[in-house]
Amino acid sequence: MKFRVIWKKAGAVFLLFGILVIWELAVNWTDTPAWLLPAPSDIFSEAQASYPDFFGHVLSTIYLTLLGFLIGSSVGFLLAVILHILPKIRDTFYPILILSQNVPIIVLAPLLIIWLGFGILPKIIVIGLVCFFPVAIAALDGLKNTSSELKHYLNMMGATKYQLFWKLELPHALPSLFSGLKISATYSVMGAVISEWLGAKTGVGVYMTLASSSFRTDRVFVAIFTIMLLSLLFFFVIVIVERIFTKWHTKGVDKSESKH
Amino acid sequence: MKVSIDGVYKSFGHTEVLKDVSLSVNEGEFVTLLGPSGSGKSTLFHLIGGLMTPDKGSIFLNGEQVNGKRGLISYMPQQPSLLPWRTVLDNVLLGQELSQKPEIEKGKDWLRKVGLGDYENSYPSELSGGMKQRVAFIRALLSPQNLMCLDEPFSALDELTRLEMQRWLLSIWEEHRRSILFVTHSIEEALLLSDRIYILSQRPAAVIEEINVPFSRPRKEALPFTDQFVAYKRHIYDVLKHEV
Ligand SMILES: Nc1ncnc2c1ncn2[C@@H]1O[C@H](COP(=O)(O)OP(=O)(O)OP(=O)(O)O)[C@@H](O)[C@H]1O
Ligand SMILES: [Mg+2]
């Protein structure tokens, strides 16, 4: 019983650790050269060594990620609200939302630079394009799928459209909105790195390009692990905010789980 | 507060649901609609609530025609319909919030009065079915509108809880008389609670009989076992049997 609880809480950490151990042993055993695949221990010591230089890159990526995420998800959310309020427009716009995700970012990004230059704007657009979609779709679904029973009650009580939105639809959409935000938060780090590949002075993406063009595979892995860590961190920040805003939701779920 | 419904007709496409329904609820009166399932009782509530307008006929509140006007009644649906993200106290105040500034102290007082004082800050998911119905009823009671429309509020409860809730409703209502229009399938519930009963026919619904319930208030616990009660029950049963 106790073992199961520990496994549930820390299972992922054990698993990750196990993979790293196997990786380390395999690299040592097969004598793989470091430029092909460095051992985790090499990556770790490289991270320590280049930390003073690398940290500036990380900070600038975090800044870009946060800015892009905030703008992208705000746009996504506002778009969802507008489309929800104007259902006639929704049916026209929904396919365009989906199409926006079919534009390959890798192709679009250089174009954006041609159009908009090397400033921060094209970068924000790239991240925003990645971030807005999960938020918009999740919020739209959350706003639309309110319980008909609650809606009926509020209508019978003479609630206005405005009251219906603020007292019913918006709070009902929160859990769904947060699911969207979690996806966006995870993607936004990747979005930031991609946008940095295309002409930035600092950032994990820049560091990564330099490292791979000089065959410093260990540094590439430092960057990869940093991106993973940032995504994870960002995800958990959203989870914590979600817990604060949807206390009722987690409480209800806890109860129904304990019943089974 | 006087409500009267005057010769109301309503159809959905080709299905005629209400056919010349007329009834009234006087100030401080408890009136029940009793009718077979699907006869159109909820539809009548939707008309009074203003969600739809009658095809013909009028609904009057204090002499003023209010066809299709919303926000004039307080409503308690069959399901408790509490907002899961609001605490019990905030749920109780919802009805008030829609049309005025909520009276927080009054809400707390009422919750204490009905034994839910400790649950003020709990969420609906932490309450039992009977407790939820109590919260929904207090919410309707605190809403500023004078007429309360209760649509089978206890039908989702088990028999024992249902009996308990009927006694509970009686005790509160007999103290604070509000005009109530109540819908139920249960003959016994109708007789136990109301001053007057309208029996509706099968669809299309029309009033087939109006019964003045003679039992004095406060209603005693042993009332359902008296001969007079049983005689009324049999009579209503016979009337409804002809319908089904
Ligand atoms: N919006 C609607 N559109 C079409 N038909 C409807 C609509 N609302 C109700 N009806 C029909 O009207 C009839 C009466 O429905 P209503 O819900 O008023 O019955 P009821 O007396 O409340 O039944 P119950 O006691 O089972 O709740 C039903 O046959 C139903 O199918
Ligand atoms: Mg009904």
TrEMBL record, chain B:
Identification of the protein by name: ABC transporter ATP-binding protein
Domain ABC transporter: 3-227
GO MF, one example: ATP binding
Top-rank lineage group of the source organism: Bacteria
Source organism per UniProt: Peribacillus cavernae
Keywords noted in UniProt: ATP-binding, Nucleotide-binding, Transport
CDD domains reported in the protein's UniProt record: ABC_NrtD_SsuB_transporters (cd03293)
Keyword flag Nucleotide-binding: yes
